[in-house]
Amino acid sequence: AAAAAGAASAAAASAAPPADSPPRDFFFDRLPDVLARDRASFLPASAPAGVSVVLVGGGYSAATTLRALVDLAKDGDFPLRVVWLLRKPSSAGPPYAVVPDDPLPARGALVAFANALAAGGAETGRASVAVRRGASVRAVRRDDDSGGVVVEGVCEAAGGGGKEEFVVRPQCLVSHVGFRPDYELARELQVHLCYASEGPMKLASSLLAARVAAERGGDASAAGDCLSQAPPGRDLLTTPEPRFHVLGAKSYGRASSFLLAIGHKQVQGVVALLAEALLPKLSK
Fold first, then answer.
1. CA angle, corner 236, sides to 231 and 241, nearest 5?
2. Beta carbons of 113 and 62 less than 8 angstroms apart
3. Distance from C-alpha of 18 to C-alpha of 201, rounded to nearest angstrom
4. Which stretches of the chain are assigned E, i.e. beta strand?
């Protein structure tokens, strides 16, 4: 009976929604759950003042957080001011490449929203979004007096023509600028890494070649579309270190196009390689 009660309690706990996280003034490590668990980080300390957020990044994570912030402002009764810092200059066109007949409708809608917002044509309700193109962050620090976050950098000058400096003191800073793999485990092993992506060299070279070919073919959307890639061959998963293979998201290094389906294919390929090398040949 006690075991059954314990199992029931564990099941109930696992089914319960996650508890709200305490407010934070920065997110560098993950995608914030703006509308649920991390909502407190984006609510105003005092209603008249509203909330100010600096969002850094030009990938799908940034667009997802931006969409959630706009939705939060629509649901709430407070003004929300967002400064969206984009490295991509205005001369490069919309921040996101549009995939024709996108098989993922939600992604297509997200891209359309973010591009319209960057062009100043999206409905944002009580949220005001200031888009700063060609931006680079020079420093993120704590204010000596208040202890709050201070973001300093440069971006395109208003109206074009040169650069201008900016200093923003947001209530919360959200940074979606990618990640780098941790190779501490393999520090003493012979693993040849790509200097650009920090993924294993063979696979990194193949991914780069496919991207360059797509860009030269004039298909910018295919170059960045994770659904257009082919699973890597088994030979691309080997390293100079015998029987050491890097699989999963880490195998893509800094690249963001990894899919779980690709990881499954990687595992199948490496298991086949190990089986050929380690299992005795069946006697005829």
1. 140
2. no
3. 40
4. 26-27, 51-56, 80-85, 127-132, 136-142, 149-156, 163-168, 172-175
Note the residue count of the chain: 284
DSSP 121: -
Look at residues 85, 41, 58, 98 and name the one whose alpha carbon lies nearest to residue 178.
58
Identify the CA nearest to 63 among candidates 36, 19, 28, 96: 96
Rounded to the nearest 5°, which phi and psi values hold at 195? Answer: -70, -25
Per-residue pLDDT of the chain (284 residues), as tens digits, is: 444 444 444 444 444 445 677 888 999 988 999 999 999 999 886 656 788 999 999 999 999 999 999 999 887 778 899 999 999 999 999 999 888 888 889 999 999 999 999 988 777 788 889 999 999 999 999 999 989 999 999 999 987 778 999 999 999 999 999 888 899 999 999 999 999 999 999 999 998 888 888 778 766 555 566 777 778 888 999 999 999 999 999 999 998 888 899 999 999 999 999 998 888 765 44
**E strand or H helix at 13, and its extent?**
helix 2-15
- Whole-model pTM above 0.90? no
Cβ-contact 249, 258 below 8 angstroms: yes
Beta pairing class for 26-27 and 136-142 = unpaired
Question: What does the alpha-carbon distance between residue 130 and residue 153 come to, in Å, rounded to a whole number?
Answer: 15
At 167, give phi and psi (nearest 5°). Answer: -135, 120
